[in-house]
Request: fold
Amino acid sequence: MIQTKAFGKVALWIFVIIPGNLIGIVIFLFVASFVVDLFKGWRAPNPKGSEISTLRQNASETIQKQINAIDLNGMAISYASADYDYCSKWYRNFDGASVSGRCQYFVERYYGFDGNLRQQLLALHNILTAAGWQTTKYESGLQQTVNDYYDRYYGTSAGYKLYDRRFTASDLREADYRQGNYILTLQFAEADINKYEQKSFGIQADVHSASAYYERNGLLSDYPALLRRITSEHTYVMAIKFHTTYFTYD
Reply:
């Protein structure tokens, strides 16, 4: 009610001071748009309310079922897990495009494994498809990672790297799969992963603290230490990330 009265006073002031001319109309439309945008930002739903809490719980339970359904057949050893949950408000970009408010949930598991990397990647692809995960034109999958990156560059100094070292698992493009509204992403690394690459490795690259009006951080405190531990005991690191947008509003 207070917002409506304030908007009415602004509109009345515009038409009294600048009666009906083009400038007045332009200013009115600008102010109206600004007020509407503010209202959309203000009306962000309560992230701890019953509706969003129920959706968040459903997302968490679904992801746990998806994790349990992936049988790695002993090919990898689990080391750690992390999760991250946040909600962001509706906003308008500088180019005028609107971005929906949303709540997203991420869970990531970290593994160490050994053996022939190419064979392991293809075996993992079969495991994921057997568990119901699919590739699309947007989710490329491990077969394409093998074809486009491993077979072309692995072990050589060629590829997209600008510095002189051999192409390793740390350089493989991440692979994605989809199951309904859920996305699974895989990343790989070896002991040579550098500090810059560590920042974009794992769930930490998805943190949105600057835009979040709700955030629950279950991230690991020391990713480099985890990577060092895994690569001291295994040749490769694998991160499997589960992600979903469980609530949106416009």
